[in-house]
Amino acid sequence: MKLFKLGVVLVFIIVTAIASFASINKEISYEVMSFESLNTFKEEVCVDNTGDITCTENTYIEQDGQKQDVPILTAYTIYEKIFVPEYIEKEKIVIKEKKLTGEEMPSPLDRIEESDVRIYSNRVTISIKNPNWRKYIDSNSMDPLIDEGTTTIEIKPKNADEIKVGDIIAYDVEGYDYAFVHRVIKKGTDQKGSYFITKGDNYHKEDPNKVRLSDIEGIVVGILY
């Protein structure tokens, strides 16, 4: 009889334990389901920093209408990602193409009139007052207009006003035993008087020194090949 009572008690304890375990398992499952029902969403903010657009993408968790912007114990990670969006097209560098018909550029002043030129069957004469002539070495700075073996005719300018942008001038440079022959691309005035900025037609940048009237040997008025 005692054994029967003991057996009944043990069965009751076992049934109670199983029921309690099932209840706990149900609660845990409910909580897990609650976590899985959380919603995640993203917010994207883009900033234009002088043409460089950077976007910040933030991921948040929302539960019952409340946005969680700090990490919470949900097994979800809240994170921030900085990126350049694909829809932003980088500025393209467009190289200006010259017009098919040619661009207007400064040219030498026309100093020889048609009446100054006389053509005969055996010779050509050009009336130029006080001319000088010059032969050239192979410096390449004025290719293809002026190259090795080219001969030019020059006249000496009397004042700075006679020299125009576009003219080709021969001028002395300290430290060199020959004259430079380059094109005038700018002219101006400073505390020392008038000056000229020159550049070789076949060179990528202007000459570093200002050219003064006293440096100039002549203005090119004719080119012979």
Could you characterize the architecture of this molecule?
- Among the domains are: 39-88, no CATH class; 130-224, Umud Fragment, subunit A, CATH 2.10.109.10.
- It is 16% helix and 34% strand.
- The chain starts with a helix and ends with a strand.
- The radius of gyration is 45 Å and the shape is rod-shaped.
- Strands 7-8-12-9-10-11 form a six-stranded antiparallel beta sheet, with no helix packed on it.
- It is of the alpha+beta class and 225 residues long.
Largest sheet features:
6 strands, antiparallel
Output the radius of gyration.
45 Å
Oligomer: single chain
* Relevant CATH superfamily of one domain: Umud Fragment, subunit A
Fraction of residues in helices? 10-25%
Q: Using the 3D structure, state the CATH architecture of one domain.
A: Ribbon
Number of helical segments with 4 or more residues: 1
Major beta sheet, strand line-up? 7-8-12-9-10-11
Number of strands: 12
Chain-averaged pLDDT: 76
Spans where pLDDT lies below 50 across 5 or more residues? 21-35, 70-78, 87-95
The CATH topology annotation of one domain reads as Umud Fragment, subunit A
Distance N to C terminus: 140 Å
- Class of one domain in CATH? Mainly Beta
